[in-house]
UniProtKB/TrEMBL annotation:
Compartments, record wording: Cell membrane; Membrane
Enzyme class, UniProt record, top EC level: transferase
UniProt keyword terms in alphabetical order: ATP-binding, Kinase, Membrane, Nucleotide-binding, Phosphoprotein, Transferase, Transmembrane, Transmembrane helix, Two-component regulatory system
Name the UniProt record assigns to this protein: histidine kinase
Length: 841
């Protein structure tokens, strides 16, 4: 029997329209004459979904009694007996009622497919097994119902039913997803804008991976080898060397330039099983690539360039990152082009990036002028050329010897001396000249095989060989010195240009100068120490033996000088001139840093002055009003004396009492905000029951059910908070919400938990606050245009934010669906405190 086809409608969250889309497709297929049956559909009380079911035949559900509760579920046997052409099965990850054939609905679907029935089903991304942990991190909600990835991936068709996060929230606010009593809780928790955006991205990326797998299968089936650049894939080649971290971070930056970019690291090991590379370094690099969101791969092959290119093609890579070769020019000349050149030649349409790294030498070290002009390596090569080339040349010339070839023999040995002097300099050239002179005399001057100097011409020939060798080697030595001096001058010019330019980089100038100086001079370590012993910047290894050279860096503003400490080798005269130039630039950079710090202090003073001005303005009005009322009331009492009636006396005393209470509250707020800004707020954290604090705040405000609506979570755990400060926060936020709510509208207070955080949400339906002005809400003495002088100094929200942050929480504004402002107080959960120990503050 032919197996049925599975079509999956994938959604990022409940309410995006998966079931609606499934029913619409079922109706369309039924109109085309297909036998479509509703096996099971969950409407969740949505009228539009239920309306689409009308006219479509369905199989009645089976009812199971479990612990006195009747549960209805899909009747698998009934659907198999009905044997439709297409079955509509909602919620693929659903857990079946106990006692049915299978514990999971996706297992029922497998039976339908085996029976040759095509199935259209729905599933949300949070129910895919491999994504459960990621979804829990995003939403704070653990998923108990999951479906294996393989079940979904094996589907013949997977479609994403997409809806923008804001549109989904609008549908939720309009009551099209959940009943009215669940809307606020849903919007405040699972259906946050950030959560929905992350879930949408997760669904699209999961589907992109599935599409990529299908693309690989298609290319393999049709023998397509060229890269199809559907999205950026960066392969980084690792050798096990120290440069791996540099290559991985460069590859990660390349992959991050495009949405959906993918990073893959690969190490090629030899077929004989021998370790090629440091296992510890490879393990660390594997951990790094995984932390960067990439994957690690290891392939076997003796032809490393071919293995790299084959792997890149197999994963449809668009970029290949390799390190610059560690080999020198001579090694390249002797052994041919390296891996990089071969990879570039064979990569075809894959872009290849060759990245420099520390293992290939410092970026631009200054050439050393001390010592001989030619390196020890070149001198050794010169001696080797004389020792190897001399006998080979002698063997060749002896085999062709005759009386007429003496001139050719002399010129051949002369050429050998010149070559040796070009490679190794003066001492290998002298050695080659002496050896060639004795060889000529022994093998090519009669009598043969004797060393005779009786003829003065032989002596002159030997002298000429030595003189020519010395002259040629002298010229080679001078040319080498001139070339190295030119390289040194170019390097010094680049260093000075870099040093001068780095001053313009602001705060990064000093570290850049220190790092560049160490690299260019080849030092082990460099650091800049201030006069008080503070290390301003450092680069390289610390001083181990206490020996270093110190250079004074004067400050142009007359402050105490800093010290530039250098260690690694003794500086020569030219390096000291460079250090003096570096010290001058460091002086300018330090002056720039000092000026920047002074500017910051001036900015802080300006802000403080603004606060002081606002404070004086507030004192001049808000404090004067209750003070003047109290003074007038007390003055009236004293002036009238015993002639004042009892009613007037009570009224004046009440006025004085109210004014003094207002004055006391204003002064308390001023003291509190000064403590918050000074960072000396005393906080006593303890496990606190949010519900108790909310009720206490409402009692303080005399808030009844006509003004406030409560939706408190009875299972909310205790939070870590200061009960006194938390009550002050709630009083300020609740009073502010009540003040800005329209007449007849109630302020809603709800509590919920999101992961390890508990939230208290104060929701009003007033005019709200535009996003660009929300930061101004928490500035002291700001009332956002409120001209009601009875509202106080404008310190309520500033104090509330300071108190909340002092308790380790946050206070943030959000839009209320339908208009208004929602203030969210988030505090850490005190999980360690048992529920029965909860107590009111």
């Amino acid at each position: 029997m032919k197996r049925g086809k599975l079509r999956v409608l994938l959604g990022a969250a409940p309410g995006v329209g998966k079931t609606y889309e499934m029913l619409e497709e079922g109706r369309r297929l039924a109109e085309d004459g297909r036998d479509v049956v509703i096996a099971v559909v969950e409407t969740h009380g949505r009228a539009a979904t239920a309306a689409l079911m009308e006219g479509l035949p369905g199989v009645p559900r089976t009812v199971v009694s479990h612990r006195g509760v009747e549960l209805s579920d899909m009747d698998l046997e009934g659907v198999l007996e009905r044997s439709p052409e297409i079955a509509l099965v909602d919620e693929l990850a659903h857990t079946n009622a106990p006692g049915l054939r299978h514990p999971k609905r996706w297992q029922d679907v497998a039976d339908l497919l085996d029976a040759g029935i095509d199935v259209i089903t729905t599933v949300n991304v949070q129910h895919i097994e491999s994504l459960g942990g990621v979804v829990e991190q995003i939403t704070g909600v653990a998923q108990r119902e999951t479906v294996p990835d393989a079940v979904v991936r094996d589907a013949d068709q997977i479609e994403v039913v997409d809806l923008s996060p804001q549109s989904l929230r609008d549908r939720l606010s309009a009551g099209l997803v959940y009943p009215a009593e669940r809307i606020d809780a849903a919007l405040s928790n699972y259906f946050r804008l950030g959560n929905l955006t992350a879930l949408r991205e997760l669904a699209l990326l999961w589907l992109a991976d599935e599409v990529d797998s299908a693309l690989k299968s298609y290319r393999a089936e049709h023998g397509i080898e060229g890269a199809w650049q559907a999205r950026e894939r960066v392969v980084v080649a690792l050798t096990g060397g120290s440069e791996g971290e540099t290559l991985l971070r460069r590859g990660a930056r390349i992959a991050a330039r495009s949405a959906g970019g993918e990073l893959l690291a690969v190490h090629v090991s030899s077929q004989d099983g021998l370790v090629s590379g440091d296992p510890g370094a490879l393990a660390a690099q594997r951990a790094l690539v995984e932390s960067l969101g990439g994957t690690y791969h290891q392939v076997v092959g003796d032809d490393i360039p071919r293995a790299l290119v084959d792997f890149a093609r197999s994963v449809n890579a668009t970029q290949l990152v390799i390190g610059v070769s560690r080999r020198g020019r001579l090694a390249t000349l002797l052994t041919g082009p390296g891996i990089g050149a071969t990879v570039i030649r064979e990569s075809g349409d894959i872009d290849v990036h060759i990245v420099t790294h520390d293992a290939a030498g410092d970026r631009f070290p200054l050439p050393r002028l001390s010592g001989g002009a030619l390196s020890v390596r070149r001198r050794v090569l010169g001696f080797a050329l004389a020792l190897i080339g001399g006998p080979l040349l002698t063997w060749l010339l002896v085999s062709l010897r005759s009386e007429d070839t003496i001139t050719t023999d002399v010129l051949a040995y002369q050429l050998l001396v010149v070559l040796v002097s070009l490679v190794g300099g003066i001492w290998p050239a002298v050695f080659a000249a002496v050896m060639s002179g004795f060889t000529l005399n022994y093998f090519f001057v009669a009598p043969y095989y004797t060393v005779s100097v009786a003829d003065p011409r032989n002596v002159w020939a030997l002298i000429l060989y030595v003189v020519i060798a010395v002259l040629v080697s002298f010229i080679v030595d001078r040319a080498a010195r001139a070339a190295r001096s030119a390289r040194r001058a170019a390097a010094e010019a680049e260093l000075l240009a870099n040093v001068a330019g780095s001053v313009l980089r602001g705060e990064s100038a000093v570290p850049a100068l220190i790092s560049r100086t160490r690299e260019s001079l080849g030092l082990a370590g460099v650091r800049l120490v201030d006069a008080d012993g503070t290390v301003v910047a450092t680069d390289g290894e610390p001083v181990r033996d206490g020996r270093y050279e110190a250079v004074t860096v004067a400050r142009r503003n007359g402050g105490p000088p800093a010290m530039l400490e250098l260690h690694g080798h003794v500086l020569d005269a030219s390096e000291r001139r460079l250090i003096d130039a570096v010290a001058a630039q460091l002086s300018a950079a330090l002056e720039h840093s000092d000026l920047t710090a002074t500017a910051r202090q001036a900015g802080a003073l300006a802000e403080t002055d603004q606060v002081r001005t606002a404070l004086l303005s507030a004192v001049s009005h808000d404090l004067r009003r209750p003070l003047a009322a109290a003074v007038a009331a007390v003055g009236g009492l004293r002036a009238a004396g015993p002639n004042l009636s009892r009613e007037d006396r009570v009224e004046l005393v009440a006025t004085a009492d109210e004014s003094l209470a207002t004055l006391s509250a204003l002064v308390t707020d001023l003291l509190d905000v000064s403590r918050v800004q000074a960072g000396v707020l005393a906080v006593s954290l303890q496990p606190v029951d949010c519900a108790g604090v909310v009720l206490a705040a409402l009692d303080e405000l005399d808030g009844g059910p006509d003004r406030f609506e409560l939706a408190l979570d009875p299972d909310l755990p205790l939070v870590e908070a200061d009960p006194v400060l938390l009550q002050r926060v709630l009083v300020n936020v609740l009073a502010n919400a009540a003040r800005h709510s329209p007449a007849g509208s109630r302020v809603r207070v709800s509590t919920s938990r999101l992961g390890r955080t508990a939230e208290i949400r104060v929701i009003d339906h007033g005019t709200g606050v535009s996003p660009e002005r929300r930061d101004d809400m928490f500035v002291p003495f700001q009332r956002l245009g409120d001209t009601d002088n009875t509202a106080g100094l404008g310190l309520g929200l500033a104090l509330s934010k300071g108190f909340t942050e002092g308790m380790g929480g946050t206070l943030a504004p959000e839009d209320t669906p339908g208009g208004g402002l929602t203030m969210v107080i988030a505090l850490p959960v005190a999980d360690a405190i048992p529920t029965e120990e909860r107590s009111l503050p």
